[in-house]
From TrEMBL:
One Gene Ontology MF term: protein serine/threonine phosphatase activity
CDD domains per the UniProt record, alphabetical: PP2Cc
InterPro entries: PP2C, PPM-type-like_dom_sf, PPM-type_phosphatase-like_dom
Biased composition (Polar residues): 149-161
SUPFAM superfamilies given in the database record: PP2C-like
Name the record gives this protein: Probable protein phosphatase 2C 33
Gene: LOC103488657
Region (Disordered): 15-54, 141-161
Length: 399
């Protein structure tokens, strides 16, 4: 439910830099008495806005509520202030046919909406550049071995992959390295950004690239990706594709504590574990990995993505990416049921509507969180009409 206590939108406590003004339109802040020097050539609010407008004019790139043959996306502001969630669907990703980039980003802290929007715009470009660079290098080293598909990640929880004899594992390693490098470059750019203060602000990210039947996902934070697929009896089931990287996850908790960060939940919200500084009860970050949040980067919070791969089959029907405003109140099965029983043109909106109603029932005294949803359909040629089995599954879940 909560993300960052020190990032309360009405109590903006930044340890450094007195904030003089904030523009919500271009994500720019101006600091008085700031010691940070702007040295990057061409870095200015007007140039940033120009680049942003150029991105928004690219065909096939969607970041507002809408729908395409392949996807439905929708976001809604909650009751906590400005909407800090962002999303993107980029078809024919950077002119590559049969390739789609999707992502959702959940900002937090005083300037989380700026960080989320910046990552939404910049991460796809950095990922594409890194994929092309690594592919070029790999082709020179491994010749024809690089032309095969990546391996299927069978045991997602353990992070191990099972490769066939034709060296598919080499390609998976290359794709994983590309994601790791792109996320690292993205976080470094945020740290050096002259106009966005990321000291106690940041964003989660769950992003995927689908090319043909290959799906690779990079996850930072507690947004989530879930697959709607058919089991052996042809029943529609939910398969979680990512792990919620929260501070109380054993692997995450061990790293944070080794770095002297503290983890505990407040008495008034015992179910939400947060990361705190060693000697100060701040900032109270409710996730173990994030872009930004540089006040905690020395104490165990990282921006390294958890990367996984899946080879899609004809039984896989759609992937749902959503921020934690959805997952806090709806189960994986409920989400898959809602999407399966909704027209493609409105599936994301219907899911956000369902989450909003669930918030009011489950947490009547709490403020509804922002929600952002991307529904990616894996076969755009299928009819969007609800099948009898999908409706039966949805009715069973409601019961």
């Amino acid at each position: 439910m909560g993300s960052c206590l020190s990032g309360d939108r009405h109590k903006r406590t930044i340890p450094y830099s007195e904030i003089a003004s904030t523009s919500r339109d271009d994500g720019v802040i101006t600091r008085r008495n700031s010691k940070r020097k702007i040295t990057r050539k061409g870095s200015s609010p007007s140039n940033d806005s120009s680049r942003e407008m150029s991105l928004h004019r690219i065909p096939g790139r969607m970041f507002l509520n809408g729908t395409t043959d392949h996807a439905s996306l929708f976001t809604r502001q909650g009751k906590k202030g400005i909407n800090q969630d962002a999303m993107i669907v980029w078809e024919n990703f950077v002119t590559k046919e049969d390739t789609i980039f999707c992502g959702v980003f959940d900002g937090h802290g005083p300037f989380g909406h700026m960080v989320a929007k910046k990552v939404r715009d910049s991460l796809p470009l950095k990922l594409n550049a890194q994929l092309e660079l690594d592919a070029t290098r790999k082709e020179g080293q491994n010749d024809a071995r690089c032309q095969v598909s990546p391996p299927t990640l069978v045991n997602k929880g353990s992070g191990t992959s099972h490769c066939d004899p034709d060296h598919r594992g080499n390609i998976y390693v290359m794709l994983k390295e590309s994601f790791l490098k792109a996320f690292k470059v993205m976080d470094k750019e945020l740290k050096l950004h002259p106009y966005i203060d990321c000291y106690t602000s940041g964003t989660t990210s769950v992003a995927l690239v689908k090319q043909g039947r290959d799906l690779i996902i990079g996850n930072v934070g507690d947004s989530r990706a879930v697959l709607g697929t058919r089991d052996k009896s042809n029943s529609l089931v939910a398969v979680q594709l990512t792990v919620d990287l929260k501070p109380n996850h054993p692997r995450e908790a061990e790293r944070i504590r080794l770095c002297k960060g503290r983890i505990f939940a407040l008495q008034n919200e015992p179910e939400i574990f947060r990361v705190w500084l060693p000697n100060n009860d701040s900032p109270g970050l409710a996730m173990a990995r994030a872009f930004g949040d540089f006040c905690l980067k020395d104490f165990g919070v990282i921006a390294v993505p958890d990367v996984s791969y899946r080879h899609l089959t004809e039984k896989d029907e759609f992937v749902v990416l959503a921020t934690d405003g959805v997952w806090d109140v709806l189960s994986n099965e409920e989400v898959v049921a809602v999407v399966a029983s909704s027209p493609r043109s409105s599936a994301a909106r219907v899911l956000v509507d369902s989450a909003t109603r669930a918030w009011r029932l489950k947490y009547p005294t709490a403020k509804v969180d922002d929600c952002a949803v991307v529904c990616l359909y894996l076969d755009s040629n299928e009819s969007s009409a609800t099948t009898a089995k999908e409706q039966e599954f949805a009715n069973d879940m409601e019961t």
